[in-house]
Amino acid sequence: MEREREGAEGRPRKVRKRKQAPNKLVGAAEAMKAGWDLEESQPEAKKAHLSTILFTDNCEVTHYQLCELLKYAVLGKSNVPKPSWCQLFHQNHLNNVVVFVLQGMSQLHFYRFYLEFGCLRKAFRHKFRLPPPSSDFLADIVGLQMKQTAGDLPKTMEGSLPSPNSKAAINLQNDPIIQKFGSKKVSLTRCLLTKEEMRTFHFPLQGFPDCENFVLTKHNGSVTDSSPLFGLDCEMCLTSKGRELTRISLVSEGGCCVMDKLVKPENKILDHLSSFSGITKNILNPVTTKLKDVQRQLKALLPPDAVLVGHSLDLDLRALKMIHPYVIDTSLLYVREQGRRFKLKFLAKVILGKDIQCPDRLGHDATEDARTTLELVQYFLKYGPKKIAELNLEALANCQELQAASQESRNTAEVLQHANTSILECLDSVGQKLLFLTRETDAGELPSSRNCQTIKCISNKEVLEQARVEIPLFPFSIVQFSFKAFSSILTEEMNKRMRIKWTEISTVYAGPFSKNCNLRALKRLFKSFGPVQSMTFVLETHQVQRPVTELTLDCDTLVHELQGDSENQGTLYLSGVSETFKEQLLQEPRLFLGLEAVILPKDLKNGKQKKYCFLKFKSFGSAQRALNILTGKDWKLKGRHALTPRHLHAWLRGLPPESSPPGLRVVPPPLEQEALQTLKVDHPKIAAWRWGRKIVKLYNTLCPGTLCLILLPGTKSTHGSLSGLGLMGIKEEEESTALGLCS
Fold first, then answer.
1. What is the assigned CATH class of domain 176-405?
2. What CATH architecture is 569-642?
């Protein structure tokens, strides 16, 4: 069984820094989206849909992040910031939001009764881990208890951003800048984009079909940490042939502008884009300088080891139709979560404390922007990644986006001025109501208000019956079922059983081998299939088989079900990959159609890329075709369809290793054995089977375009806590046939 996917990318090597593989910024779903534009391409028919890769480096979703998604589903990007942990496309095509809460259940329930939850597993492709619940889980996910806590967004401030010097208790190790560069100061050459990164982010490169007529600068490959920096910024207009250059500004390391030229486009101008460039028809009329003149001057001006600095520099170089191999892009240097990019105006304000691109001016000042990018790189080199990570740029940017959203939408300004806006307030701002269905005896409930319709029922059965009738009448519904939680003793016993079961599933029995066999050769053979935690040779037996116990009887069935899990559909596990594997993959895009993400785990201790990876495809068929190619004679890799989703790895990591010696019969703990023999109607095993089927039946009747979440909140008691689990999907018309299997 595959080991955990610790990260979306391997950390760069330390020998030749400029040949390093890209970091998390270009890992999992973001690298493939930037490289082949898969996620951003418009679907054939616009439908609300979720990205298939929800996470870059973590599979646990906090209650705040869950609320973040639900608010975005209600109001959309014009009113609230996009979710930081997943992508919801075409939100305006969502018809309803339905949240099912299974109180008393946890991730332990889900994997202890994995076979019984079969209908839910097949219906919902996206799964994620939840932290143990607080005292009021419902209030958390609806946003009624959001307070200013460590790591949360800072409160919105009128007129300006919060001070960058304000100390926030943040986990620096989770900051994408630290994950890419580490915490120590870095050299200039470490900040350069690698060739693979330049290819991924569409920089013009020599030999590429779309760069045939581009001009190469004079470079000799001798770039060092003392090479000169030059800030570059270009302004463009829209012509009959696309975007063309109208102005170029080049600033030297000391801040002196060494080149500032207006350029006359070759083709007819359709739009001067004056609001961005500041260039009008009257300004360009007397200009005689052409693109070829600028190319010649720039080539003569730049020394062979010059390093060009800019913000989204690929656009500038393409406007110049020039190729230069040594670049630092501040939109990629100041790494942001999920592959998003900070705006130059934002970085200038927060990092340098200066205002640029002021609204009272027509367009941008190219010289000012070029100088700003230069200063941002100098700041990065002087103070290092740790200093920047301590600023908590993501929180500040989210705060700014919240301010901008409140200014753009007057109707919701009062609601969105604060980061602790609740879903009830969001619904109220657009004149909608929330439906809340629950049992009378449930402790957790939502406060009564004008836009919350609460219906209390006697039993789970009545909750389900009411849900069938009421859900179609409300745009947002929360349906809560309640189940009896495990006792602390039973929980511990079940944890032990799960440790043994998953250890057995992860164990391979092979042989028999002779006493004279080459042990080193055997180790090499097994390790070629992936990382091996331990190996034990038993030479006293002639029969090789998995020990048969009550816990291992269904191991083969579980493995089969894991492979068929909707989350694993289209995912490949490959072993024997080299550090250049991703670069080779990117060079053959036509061979791997439908590829959405490359996930390259790294060693948590030394940061090196491991020798296995995961490939995520749009469909099972695309994955199968790729598997045939990758395991063929040309690539010679070992691989198979993946078995284990990432949230399962995270959960298993929390279980201390425990296994039984070969041949030892494991007797199930008596407490659980008695409970399973009783098989009461409300026992979790029966509840998982019955209610999983009932919820999927109800889901199957919902209208297309319904965002549906199934939440197992987890449990918390004085004896310990159990993490929760979430399942998520958007109901589409074509799903009806598949879901009919559980009807």
1. alpha beta
2. 2-Layer Sandwich (3.30)
